[in-house]
Design a protein that fits this description.
Radius of gyration: 21 Å
Order of helices and strands: HEHHHEEHEEEEHEEEHHEEH
Strand order of the largest sheet: 4-5-6-7-3-2-1-8-9-10-12-11
Helix content: 25-40%
Structural class: alpha+beta
Number of helices: 9
Shape: globular
Number of domains: 2
Largest sheet: 12 strands, antiparallel
């Protein structure tokens, strides 16, 4: 999964974290075990997004060089990234759907895909193209850093607005069928309120825990069936919400106590800490609210946007 995410970074790194248009469950296969979605349009409208674009403007020369190379400007052309897939043992197997405004070539293919092909063909091993049901699929191999083994990656485009990457050929083809409405897609009604289709959020994710190995030190998660997360922004605050659905009310109550204990321990460890950022970390911990309802543990954090932006500016100053 890391290999093709790096390709996304090539196109998007200068956007400083701005991804994906409104969340559309109909673009995600019904059998997906997890997904992660980031809404760039919502992001850019908020104070954090405007701050990110302001910082990106300082790298205009580098971004313009990237645009010239890829024929894709992430500052205005990137509309969406949605990641989804399954979990095999402890490895994420997935597909990345990139929604953007792509310049088209005479043959109808997106220019960035052609540029990617031109970049990859002389530099990677096992590069090839194949036609499957009228769709051109690119594939190539990358070295996995930890094992130095070759891992295959696939890429294709669906239409003028969508490019896909994945590390599983079968999943990639299935994702194409979902986009073409030839295979079942995720239904919002099955998400139990964990997914927000519209609103001021710009990050939403979901993970079904079934089949995922849980190490002994995390056995308190054994009774958790689903985890959902979202990040939203108002004029005054950045809000982070996590929901953990459990198997029964007893497991829910136990998980709430454990989460409260973790927060308390983290708070205690910072009481006499004089390192930079410890004061802010303490304030953040104090604002975490943990509640339960209907076998679900809710962890919510709301933090002032002004303070977040000030911390970001201080961090950027340190890095310069």
């Amino acid at each position: 999964m890391k290999q093709y995410i790096l390709i996304i970074v090539v196109f998007c790194s200068m956007a400083r974290g701005a991804f994906a248009g409104e969340f559309k469950p109909t673009q995600i296969p019904a059998n997906s075990q997890w997904y992660l979605h980031f809404d760039v349009d919502g992001f850019k409208k908020g104070r954090l997004g405007k701050f990110a674009l302001e910082q990106a403007s300082k790298e205009a020369e580098k971004i313009d060089a990237l645009v010239l190379l890829t024929q894709f400007d992430p500052r205005k052309d990137l509309h969406g990234i949605t990641l989804f897939g399954s979990v095999v043992k402890d490895d994420l197997i997935g597909t990345v759907l990139v929604n953007g405004s792509y310049k088209m070539l005479a043959d109808g293919s997106p220019a960035p895909l052609a540029q990617l092909e031109a970049l990859l063909e002389p530099t990677v091993t096992g590069f090839k193209k194949e036609q499957i049901n009228g769709v051109e699929i690119l594939s190539w191999k990358n070295k996995v850093e930890d094992t130095q083994e070759d891992k295959q990656t696939f890429g294709t485009f669906f239409d003028k607005d969508h490019i896909l990457f994945g590390d599983d050929r079968k999943q990639l083809l299935h994702a194409l069928n979902v986009l073409a409405k030839k295979a079942p897609s995720l239904k919002a009604s099955t998400l139990k309120g964990l997914a927000k289709e519209k609103g001021n959020h710009y990050l939403a994710g979901l993970l079904h825990m079934k089949g995922i190995p849980i190490p002994p030190e995390a056995n308190f998660m054994e009774n958790v069936t689903t985890i959902g997360v979202s990040v939203s922004e108002s004029e005054e605050n950045l809000s982070v919400s996590m929901q953990m659905i459990t198997t029964d009310e007893e497991a829910c109550a136990q998980l709430q106590l454990i989460m409260q204990g973790f927060v308390a321990l983290a708070h205690l460890s910072l009481i006499n800490n004089k390192e930079p950022g410890s004061k802010e970390a303490t304030e953040i911990l104090q604002k975490i609210n943990i509640t339960i309802k209907n076998k679900t543990v809710f962890m919510n954090l709301s933090y002032p946007m002004g303070e977040i932006l000030e911390l970001a500016r201080l961090q950027l100053t340190k890095e310069q």
